[in-house]
Amino acid sequence: MVYFRMVIFEENITPIMFKNISITIICLAFTLLSKNTFSQNGKDTILLLNGGVVIGSVIDTLNGVTTIKNPKDSTKNLIIENDRIFSITNANGESVMYVYDTIIGNEFTIDEMRYFILGEQDAEKGFKAKGAFWGNMLLGAAGGVTGSFLCPIPPFAFTALSGVPRVKVRPSTVSNVDYIKHDTYIMGYERVARKKRKISSLVGGGIGMGVGLGTFFILKANNSEISFQ
């Protein structure tokens, strides 16, 4: 009878012990993998959701952040929030960190987000907002030459509205014309293109207004000298 009770006890405890050991092993393996599956020779490529790329040696991806060695100073580390990262790639392959979850605002699937990023990258490389730059430069110069206190208003209004017009995706600025077939690629391209328009417009308007005001003061000084004579 005693022997029978001991057998029952062993059958009840063994699965629990095995489960605890299994959980411990899994946790330990996950910790080791999170630290060792990334390259330690500066060959990890971190692709950000905004299309940016960071190359460095990943130390770990724990606690919601990815820690990498600073490429410019190996004695210091850089920290990037994991929710800003799409994937980390090295000799072992690509590890996608982006998660499709509408609850946290990630509306795109992994493939859709990949095309979105490609659109951002192509626009960053190829889109030139020359029209916004020169247009606002002329507007700023025209306002500045009047010497009015209201002269900054037109350039700033132009900058605010520069992101409204439709963005035309030129095939010459696209790394692969097949990408244009994907809506999220167009969305990513337009996002960066509109941002570049606003920046170029702001710079152009500032330069134009500076030139216009400079011209105004020069003319004013010359008129004063003529009147004095």
Summary keywords:
disordered N terminus, about 55% helix, 7 strands, disordered C terminus, alpha+beta, 3 domains, SH3 type barrels, about 15% strand, about 230 residues
Largest sheet: 4 strands, antiparallel
Summed over residues and divided by their number, the pLDDT gives a mean of 81
Number of helices: 5
Number of strands: 7
Strand content: 15-25%
Binned, the helix content reads 40-55%
- Quickly give the structural class: alpha+beta
Distance between the termini: 128 Å
Rg, alpha carbons? 29 Å
Write a structural description.
This protein is an alpha+beta fold. It has three domains: 1-36; 39-98, SH3 type barrels (Roll); 110-228, no CATH class. Helix content is 53%, strand content 16%. It is built from five helices and seven strands. It has helices spanning 2-36, 110-126, 130-144, 153-161, 183-228, and strands at residues 44-48, 53-56, 58-60, 65-70, 73-81, 85-90, 93-96. Strand 3 (58-60) and strand 4 form a beta hairpin. The longest helix has 46 residues, at 183-228. The radius of gyration is 29 Å and the shape is elongated. The chain starts with a helix and ends with a helix. Mean pLDDT is 81; it is low at 1-37 and 225-229.
